[in-house]
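Researcher: Final request for today, and then I'll write up notes for the group meeting. The sequence and the SMILES for flavin-adenine dinucleotide follow.
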Amino acid sequence: MKTNTELLADHTWLKIGGPAEITTPQSKEELVKILDCCYQSNRDYRILGNGSNLLVNDDGVDELVIKTTEACMEFKVDGTQVDVGASMMVPQFINKCISNGLGGYEYLYSVPGTVGGAIFMNAGRGESHNMTISDYLISVEVFADGEHCVLTKEDLQFNHRYSTFQDHNDWVILSATFDLPEQSQEKGNRLIKERMEKIRRRERSKPNAGSVFKSGSRLPLHKIPPGGLSIGNAEFVSGNRICHDGNATFTNIVRLITLAKLLNRLVPPFENPEIEWEIWN
Ligand SMILES: Cc1cc2nc3c(=O)[nH]c(=O)nc-3n(C[C@H](O)[C@H](O)[C@H](O)COP(=O)(O)OP(=O)(O)OC[C@H]3O[C@@H](n4cnc5c(N)ncnc54)[C@H](O)[C@@H]3O)c2cc1C
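Model: Predicted protein-flavin-adenine dinucleotide complex:
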């Protein structure tokens, strides 16, 4: 197994994170071999997708980091059923579905993560829309507890930004099977365009990791003091999004979130917001 010591800041959308030993398998076979090896030798590991939902400590992590973005890229269509590798980026997956006359996930076109990361997070549109990637999911090919197996949707639990995988951090999603509605390419392309138009005004150029809190528990704008809410070089650019200038630290961001949570608890309607990000500490 080839590994490199690298800064996780170079692998996360927030551009924060200290050193770790990273390996990037180039095929599903290589990924499974590494996972098997770790399992046999009791070596702890963490799975890194595209790093778009991760806040990582400046001290880095001790576990082996397995970056999955290159490993599982297959895409197979049989009627309305699609098998897709967990490493494929969500927009690429959606484009391929559209080219095959299938649709349903265009609202996820703005998600800059992998299919595996999206299933782990049960990525979706705001809570009130009640639409998530698990909607058309049939089954998931996984490496779980030393076994390479398939779990059906019924074997798993999905909730708002929650999947069973969050309780089993050593389980690894290798691919997924979906049964998608048929849809014209024209409609698919229009829906993508509408989605991207909707988010056009959002700040995406500065380091960020999308929504900080799960929807329904965002920081209402009336709770943000005049002049904004910021610590160090990190600030809330909206009620639910933190951006920074590239120089913020893990501690800056954690303190900013703590402050926002405190405001949420002290100012009506008195909420206790739940963080959406995965935190590697
Ligand atoms: C600009 C921006 C917009 C966003 N918009 C949305 C949105 O509209 N809706 C939404 O739900 N989210 C959104 N997100 C959050 C994020 O993109 C999603 O949660 C995405 O699905 C994370 O995928 P990833 O590959 O980047 O995962 P990572 O951030 O790399 O990892 C997240 C977690 O998933 C685990 N994981 C990743 N891959 C696997 C795998 N193959 N097997 C097992 N575990 C795995 C990791 O261990 C980690 O715990 C946004 C983020 C950004 C930066």
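Model: The mean pLDDT is 94. Residues 221-276 form one domain.
Researcher: Thanks, that's everything.
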